[in-house]
Design a protein that fits this description.
The complex is a heterodimer of chains A (178) and B (375). With 178 residues, chain A is α/β, with parallel strands linked by helices. Helix content of chain A is 39%, strand content 26%. Chain A has a single domain, classed as Pyruvate-ferredoxin oxidoreductase, PFOR, domain III (Pyruvate-ferredoxin Oxidoreductase, domain 3, 3-Layer(aba) Sandwich), CATH 3.40.920.10. Chain A has six helices and six strands, in the order βαβββαββαααα. Chain B folds into two domains: 183 residues, Rossmann fold (3-Layer(aba) Sandwich); 110 residues, Rossmann fold (3-Layer(aba) Sandwich), CATH 3.40.50.920. In chain B, the strands form three sheets. A seven-stranded mixed β-sheet of chain B has the order 3-2-4-5-7-6-12, with helices on both faces. A five-stranded mixed β-sheet of chain B has the order 9-11-10-13-14, sandwiched between helices. In chain B, helix 1 runs parallel beside helix 7 and helix 3 runs parallel beside helix 5. The longest helix of chain B has 18 residues. Classes of the chains: A alpha/beta (178), B alpha/beta (375). At the A-B interface, helix 1 and strand 2 of A face helix 8, strand 8 and helix 11 of B.
Chain lengths: 178, 375
């Protein structure tokens, strides 16, 4: 794997910057890979369209933002419209079933619709956990990081009282893409 | 090297400042530099050092100047709008020869512009923002490891040459979280000239080209510091002979040491027919583009300026003896391209890839510009 590019698009507060930070930390500290997380956000952070690019590579990363995206998860229409540029023709694209309606020209994308935010809220009670759910489904689909390393890291990272909930979020994420 | 970890660019700069001996920070948080102040507000008190959030950027630099005079290693961090406010005090620091480190994480401008978007538009402001002829040192890191090493260097240069040093940063790099292996403390080269016991109060008395000594102004000596042109005692003067000498002293303390001050990185330049000249985030796109171009057999290399002021004129002139095409890549409407125009000999073909809309050049875009230039 030379350079793998992931983009998460969301609105501020959905927690996808956290998902990006988790992914980068796991790649670097658990797998000894090179990784960068590069966020972009608008002035009105909460509720405004945001994206985060995550680059993971075996080599030193030169350009820290996405150039040709392999994997895109988007949980809102506005960021989808703004940030679908630079997707590879054969990118894996995951969109929220309820929150992204208009896809436009899907080219040769492997497009998946998942009720990401709805299921997170329903099964875990808090959409903040969209971050860990997204991390888990990214792991399962791309294999860019190992499952064991992800679980270990989330266990270390989560506050004591929320470890179980975060581990449950991992399982929710994995179930969603069965 | 320690174990690799993930740190945000702004945090790397703040950590490096502390490693360089920074024991005073005054600032007014502003996007996209706020995490520097945030980190300092937590770390400095923990270490027994001073952190002050001031009422604005003018007072922030004022506080740093005062702290530096009292023997502290002082730093502030800001962005374009705040840096504009600092120009008056920046001039004072140059005039009175006070070591200070100022971080400017650039954002879209002019005015409040685009707070959350990157730009490389303050390059000329760092050179000529404050009025009057003056020397300035500006370093411009691009990679995570350079954020650390250039911050250390900024403090060292500032202390050594008794001059403000500016660290320019790009929003993308300041906000990104990247992997870095921080160096161990014992491996760092920190310059810290001990306070001199001066015999008399002629603190500005020295020969042209000599470095000034470091004096803890407020510890015991009744020393006069003035923003007016001054004599060797620091007292105001307009005597043309003395003014001549003082102006030359201030210029030469920097310009006699260019070899020591100016640093750059070069990539694939040995056999290059085209040289890309860039810095910051644009240098990172450019390096990726150069590697893509090399795979396609295009003989192109990159000159990454790590010190942008003083401008690396002599180094570039050396390159122009062999390389006859230069492509400047910068996120502004054209700034260093003019410096290149002044530097390049007539037989050198020059082009610039410019944009200031808040979107960094992608490697693909730089590659296309290289290909257009090659034709």
């Amino acid at each position: 794997m030379s350079r793998y590019e992931i983009r998460y698009g969301a609105v501020g507060g959905q927690g996808l910057l956290t998902a990006g930070a988790l992914l980068v930390n796991i790649a670097v500290t658990k797998e000894n890979k090179y990784a960068v997380e590069s966020p972009t956000y608008t002035a009105s952070v909460r509720g405004g369209a945001t994206k985060v690019d995550i680059i993971i590579s075996d080599k030193r990363i030169l350009f820290p933002q996405a150039n040709a995206i392999d994997f895109f998860v988007c949980t809102e229409q506005k960021p989808f419209d703004l940030y679908k540029e630079r997707l590879k023709d054969d990118a894996i694209v995951i969109i929220d079933t309820h929150l992204v309606k208009e896809v436009g020209n899907p080219r040769n994308w492997k497009l998946m619709r998942i009720p990401l935010v709805y299921e997170t809220k329903k099964q875990l009670g808090n959409i903040v956990l969209t971050s860990v759910v997204t991390l888990a489904l990214t792991q399962k689909i791309t294999g860019i990081i190992g499952y064991r390393n992800m679980v270990d890291y989330v266990r270390e990272w989560a506050p004591q009282d929320y470890i179980d909930l975060n581990l449950k979020a991992i399982e929710v994420g994995r179930e969603l893409i069965k | 090297m320690k174990q690799r970890q993930v740190l945000q660019g702004n945090t790397i700069v703040a950590k490096a400042a502390i490693a360089a001996g920074c024991d005073f920070f005054a600032g007014y948080p502003i996007t996209p530099s706020s995490e520097i102040a945030q980190f300092m507000s937590m770390e400095m008190p923990r270490l027994g050092y001073d952190f002050i959030q001031m009422e604005d950027e003018i007072s922030s630099l004022g506080a740093c100047i005062g702290a530096s005079l009292a023997g502290k290693k002082a730093m502030t961090a800001t962005s374009g709008p705040g840096f504009s406010l600092m120009q008056e005090h920046l001039g004072l620091a140059v005039m009175a020869e006070i070591p200070i480190v100022i971080v400017n994480v650039m954002r879209g401008g002019p005015s409040t512009g685009m707070p959350t978007k990157p730009s490389q538009s303050d390059i000329m402001q760092t050179r000529w923002g404050t009025h009057g002829d003056h020397p300035i040192i500006v370093v411009y890191p691009a990679f995570a490891s350079q954020l650390f090493s250039e911050t250390i260097r900024a403090f060292n240069l500032s202390e050594k040459f008794w001059n403000p040093v500016i660290i320019l940063l790009d929003e993308v790099i300041a906000k990104a979280r990247e992997d870095i292996a921080l160096p161990r403390k014992k491996d760092l080269n920190i310059y810290w000239e001990k306070t001199k016991q001066i015999e008399d109060l002629n603190i500005y008395d020295r020969e042209i080209g000599q470095n000034p000594p470091r004096v803890d102004f407020f510890k015991k000596y009744p020393i006069h510091i003035d923003s007016l042109e001054h004599d060797k005692h620091g007292w105001p003067t307009t005597d043309p002979k003395i003014v001549d000498k003082m102006q030359t002293l201030r210029m030469q303390k920097i310009y006699n040491y260019l070899d020591e001050i100016i640093t750059h990185e070069e990539y694939y330049l040995d056999d290059a027919e085209i040289m890309v000249f860039s810095f910051g985030i644009s240098a990172r796109s450019s390096l990726a583009a150069v590697e893509m171009a090399r795979e396609q057999g295009i003989k192109v290399g990159l000159f990454q300026a790590l010190t942008i002021w003083p401008f690396p004129k002599l180094l570039l002139r050396e390159k122009f003896k062999k390389i006859k095409k230069i492509l400047v890549v910068e996120m502004n409407m054209g700034q260093t391209i003019y410096e290149i125009e002044r530097t390049a000999t007539d037989d050198v073909e020059r082009q610039a890839l410019l944009r200031a809309n808040g979107v960094p050049f992608t490697p693909t875009e730089v590659l296309e510009a290289i290909k257009r230039f090659k034709k």
